[in-house]
Amino acid sequence: MTFQQEAASWLSPKHLDTAPVPRVGARAPSMDKVPLPDADGKPTLITFLRHCGCPFAEKTFITLRSLAAAHPSVQFVAVSHSDAEATARWVTSVGGAGPVRVVVDAEREVYARWGLGVSSFWHVLSPWSMFSVFKLGREEGIWNKPTESGNRWQTAGSFGIDGQGIVKWSRPAQSADDVPDIEEGLRMLEYREGP
């Protein structure tokens, strides 16, 4: 990681036309990188990460991985807009992917289809978000890591999609420190292990 890479993560990214955030009851966007519904008919929990290096992305990913291991009948997907190499290094640094399918969307096209665009200054740098960085580090040992690629202004979000491709849970991040309750997503899918 170089100073230039870290500084570049603070530059405003290329503008993309962003679709509305999918609402509960709507058909989920389906693209080649993330085809929905799942071919096996499994429900899907998908989370769009801020950037590789973000402590809130790390906390979200660790939770996603833990729940994926406990719920093999659900497909768990994490989408990164950092490039493939930076994403792979970051995933390794946070303990590996486990059963989570990691999708790289460096062009941010999948993010845009899911209504996740560029955030505001206040979304990223509010005093509450800055305090939450310190609190997460102090309480859970999750601190900022170097940002090799990707952008700090990209909005995150998480969604639950049933086996027919219908959105059952829609949770775009309201701020940089807004870590989704993935277990709530499982409940909204009315997921039950077993027959």
How would you describe the overall organization of this protein?
With 195 residues, this protein is α/β, with parallel strands linked by helices. The protein is built from seven helices and five strands. The chain has helices at 3-8, 55-70, 84-93, 109-113, 121-125, 127-140, 182-188, and strands at residues 44-48, 75-80, 101-104, 157-161, 167-172. The longest helix is centred in the first third of the chain and has 16 residues, at 55-70. It is globular and about 45 Å long. The N and C termini lie far apart (48 Å).
Question: Based on CA inertia axes, which overall geometry fits?
Answer: globular
Indicate the percent of residues in helices.
Answer: 25-40%
Query: What is the quaternary state of this protein?
Result: single chain
Gap between N and C termini, in Å? 48 Å
Mean pLDDT: 85
Name the beta content range: 5-15%
What order do the SSEs take from the amino end to the carboxyl end, as H and E?
HEHEHEHHHEEH
How many helices? The count is 7
- Helix and strand content put the structural class at alpha/beta
- Can you summarize the main beta sheet? 5 strands, mixed
* Regions with little confidence, pLDDT below 50 for 5+ residues: none
Strand elements, count: 5
Taking all Cα atoms into account, the compactness measure Rg is: 16 Å
Strand order of the largest sheet: 3-2-1-4-5
